[in-house]
Amino acid sequence: MPKQPTVSRRSLLRHAAALPAGALMAPALVGRARAAGMKMRLSSSQPDDPKYANGRVYYDFLQASLKDNGLAEQISVQFFPANQLGQEIDVINSVKLGVVDLMVSGTSISANLVPLIGLCDLGYLFQSFPQQTKAFDAGAAKPLEDALLKGANIHVIGWAYNFGARSVLARKAVHTPEDLNGLKIRTLPNPVITECLRLMGAAATPLAFGEIYTALQAGVLDGLEHDPPTILASKFYETAKFYSLTEHNFSPLVTYFSDMTFKRMDPKLREGFLDAAQKAALKTRAHGLAVEKEALTVLQKNGVTVIDIDRAPFRARVAPQTDAFIAKMPESKPIIEKIRATPA
Question: What mean pLDDT value characterizes the chain?
Answer without folding.
Answer: 91
